[in-house]
Each structure stands twice: as structure tokens, then as C-alpha cells.
Write a structure and sequence with these properties.
Length: 337
């Protein structure tokens, strides 16, 4: 099977699921990495190291900034001439858009946010979670090429082999576009809960430490946020020792404890870490749908009846202000940090 793998990146920072897509492509046959932008040499090198047999590179200043129209047109032109059986992309906001537009150009369909893809005979059978992760749907695409976006961390990442290389070919970019990017504005601190191998999250319980005395003169709401920030400091220290990211429940975000970029759940990010530690989070269904793909869930909660314990492999009934620093100290010792 001949597969194109689109290597999605923002200013040279590759979406790690692109490498996972290369690994999947190789399990089916040949893998051609497809890269758009400028200054792509380091990315092309990495694509070979992660398993690409060849690379098609549209290196053009017009593709420096992502815009749906030229990216989709360039991809569909490459697919028309290269006739792959399958085009894989990591699932991102960008790729959902460009995959859909390329599918219209190619008169085929898109299978989005897959957690499984297998080849049975000549038929690709895809799996994707639906109904907030309660069901896994099996789907096939009768069009050709099959276009599919893969959920981050749902597929194994291939080992990087620095001795590998391949053939790189420059291709023409389709640059026509009615839109231009005027600039970027950083909305919030960069958070990568979706890609993190470890996520330590805090909920409303992160503010519940009456023994902490806020600075004099603070009103009740500010005192609650101040306490929560102390709680999230502890959560951040645990995440940092484990090389992970900080997540949060919606209650914590809505109460102003932490920015939205950290929110995990139905209206936040879906995460799939190896380890998810929920601190002071009750375990509402809207939170649980965001962590269903986590490999190991640990909960710390004062309430032994909290629903989060039902989805946790390990649970600690206790105060997060006591348990989290104790865990941080234990991991520091264990990891020699
Ligand atoms: P709570 O439910 O108030 O739980 C706090 C927990 O902390 C309790 O279990 C308590 O026992 C424990 N606790 C208190 N003090 C301590 C302490 N010192 N140490 C240890 N434990 C302590 N929620 C999300 O998280 N993500 C979403 O994306 C999301 N989307 C939603 C979409 C919709 C349409 C709706 C209606 C709701 C959504 N929600 C979402 C909200 C969700 O229903 C819950 O309200 C929310 O998850 C509760 O957050 P929480 O667990 O932090 O707070």
C-alpha cells in the first residue's frame, strides 16, 4: 500500500502524531512524507529518521503560514499525480480543515480522529470513538485515496533511527489563496496537555485549603483564586518532576484558577497520557470523556465516594495539599531529581 503522510508543523515545531502516522504507514507498506512551508530541511531529515522512504517537499514562502486553501490544493494536486492509496495526517484544527477540502478536490471521504486503522484484505477499517467515547465506531471509506486523520498518541511512535535517509523531491506549491495571515498573538501560555505523556490535573478542590491565609484585604473570590493558585503550584511541581503538563477541570477554569488552554474534557482537550493524576476533581462525565484514552488514572480526592475513583486504577482518599507534595518528594527521590 502506498501512503502519503502529511507532516503537520507550526513554525518548524512538528505535531508529534505526524511521526505516529509515519509508523502506521510503514506497517502497511511504503511511506512518503509530505511537507509544506519553508526551511524544511531539519523536518525532512527527521521524517526519514522516523521511517519515511521518500519526501515530497513544497518549499515556498507562500506556504510559510498555514492557510486552508493553498495547503489543501497543494495536497490534492500531489495526490492526483502521486496516486496514493491512503493519506494520513495527525488530527489538528489545521488538518481537519485541509483534509476536508482536499477530499472535496479528490472526490473522496475523510475519516477523522481515528484511534485505530487496520488493513483487512484490501479494505482499510478505521475505528473512532463516538458519543463522548462510549462507543467505538468502525468505518470504511469507499473513495480513493482514503484520507484519515489520527488522534495523537493513539498509535505507537516509531523509534528514531538517525542513520536512515531517503529521497527528497521538490514539488510545486499551489499558492492561490483569498486569505493572508496578518500575524499571531499569543493567547495563553503554551500548554501541551494533548501531547503530554503525563498530565497532572487540578479541580475545584485545588482551592480548598482553609488553613492557607491569603494576604490581608483580599475579598472572598480573590482569596479563593489565591488559594487555588497555591494548589496549582503544588500540582505544577508534581507535573514538572514527572516531565508532564498541568490539566484542569472546567470548574477550575470557570472559577478563574487557571486558563482554558489547560481544560480537559468534553469542552476542553481530549488527552491520552500514559499517566493521568486527577487532584481534587470529582469525576463528572464531561471530565471523564476527556481522559478515557489515558492508560493509567490516579485520583486524589477527600471524598471516598467521588465518581473519579470508579475510573481510577489507583486512588488516594486524602487532602491534595498533603498528598501532592508527598508524591512530588517521593518521585524526586526515586528519579534522583
Ligand atoms: P467539583 O465537582 O466541585 O469537585 C471537586 C472535588 O474536589 C470534589 O470531589 C471534592 O471531594 C474534592 N476536594 C475538595 N477539596 C479537596 C482537597 N483539599 N483535596 C482533595 N480533594 C478535594 N467539566 C470538565 O472538567 N471538563 C469539561 O470539558 C466539561 N465540559 C462540560 C460541558 C457541559 C455541557 C457541561 C454541562 C459541563 C461540563 N463540565 C466539564 C463540568 C462538569 O459537569 C463538572 O461540573 C466539573 O467537571 C466539576 O469540576 P471539579 O471536579 O473540579 O469540581
Amino acid at each position: 500500500m502506498k501512503t502519503f503522510v502529511y507532516i503537520d508543523h507550526f513554525k518548524g515545531q512538528v505535531q508529534p502524531a505526524s511521526w505516529e502516522a509515519l509508523g502506521l504507514a510503514k506497517s502497511f507498506g511504503s511511506a512518503t512524507a509530505v511537507l509544506f512551508g519553508t526551511g524544511l530541511d531539519p523536518l525532512v531529515k527527521a521524517a526519514f529518521e522516523f521511517g519515511a522512504d521518500e519526501a515530497l517537499i513544497a518549499d515556498d514562502p507562500a506556504l510559510t503560514d498555514y492557510r486552508a486553501e493553498p495547503f489543501a490544493s497543494t495536497l490534492s494536486a500531489l495526490a492526483s499525480s502521486g496516486t496514493p492509496d491512503l493519506i494520513l495526517l495527525p488530527t489538528t484544527t489545521r488538518t481537519r480543515e485541509m483534509a476536508a477540502m482536499a477530499a472535496v478536490d479528490l472526490n473522496t471521504g475523510v475519516l477523522v480522529d481515528l484511534t485505530g486503522l487496520s488493513l483487512e484484505g484490501n479494505q482499510l477499517i478505521a475505528t473512532r470513538p463516538i458519543y463522548e467515547g462510549k462507543l467505538n465506531e468502525k468505518i470504511v471509506c469507499s473513495g480513493k485515496p482514503v484520507i484519515a486523520t489520527l488522534r495523537g498518541r493513539a498509535f505507537p511512535r516509531p523509534a528514531q533511527d538517525e542513520s536512515r535517509s531517503g529521497t527528497a523531491t521538490k514539488v510545486e506549491a499551489k499558492t492561490e489563496s483569498p486569505t493572508t495571515v496578518e500575524g499571531y498573538e499569543v493567547a495563553e501560555a503554551a500548554v501541551s496537555v494533548s501531547d503530554a505523556g503525563v498530565v497532572v490535573s487540578g479541580g475545584r478542590g485545588a482551592s480548598n485549603n482553609p488553613s492557607l491565609t491569603p494576604p490581608a484585604g483580599m475579598d472572598e473570590k480573590d482569596a479563593e483564586i489565591w488559594r487555588a493558585q497555591e494548589g496549582f503550584k503544588l500540582i505544577g511541581e508534581l507535573a514538572s518532576v514527572l516531565g508532564g503538563a498541568v490539566g484542569a477541570s472546567r470548574a477550575a477554569v470557570d472559577a478563574g484558577y487557571i486558563p482554558y488552554a489547560h481544560q480537559v474534557g468534553q469542552t476542553g482537550k481530549v488527552v491520552a497520557p500514559d499517566l493521568y493524576i486527577a487532584c481534587g476533581i470529582s469525576g463528572a462525565i464531561q471530565h471523564i470523556v476527556g481522559i478515557r484514552s489515558a492508560k493509567l488514572v490516579v485520583a486524589i480526592n477527600k471524598d471516598a465516594e467521588a465518581p473519579i475513583f470508579k475510573v481510577s486504577r489507583y486512588g488516594v482518599v486524602g487532602d491534595l495539599f498533603v498528598c501532592v507534595p508527598a508524591l512530588t518528594a517521593a518521585f524526586k527521590k526515586k528519579l534522583g531529581k
